Amino acid sequence: MNTTVEKISKICTSCGFCCDGTLFNYAQVNDVKDLESIKKLGLTKINKEGRSFFKLPCCHFDQKCTVYDQSKPEICSKFFCEPIKKIKKGNYLSLIHI
Hints:
The protein is of the alpha+beta class. Helices cover 34% and strands 12% of the residues. The chain has 4 helices and 3 strands. Strand 2 (45-48) and strand 3 (51-55) form a beta hairpin. The longest helix is centred in the N-terminal third of the chain and has 12 residues, at 4-15. 15% of the residues are buried.
């Protein structure tokens, strides 16, 4: 595993704080394609403040994402936590606490 993209992918799929309910109680649904994905995956849709979301923790997270290679809501592929954003920018030193 040599590329930054591969490393980020491994970190994301094994961490899961954004999926397991640690960080969030729900995730945003962006469009009709997302609605189809959450229905197909059996996720619970909720409406809040005029917007659609699906409930977290995600039932497809079991020590890692179990539907990573399937059609899923856009947020599942597009969300990056702050440490990952720093890695993507090449700012690795800011992640080291001395």
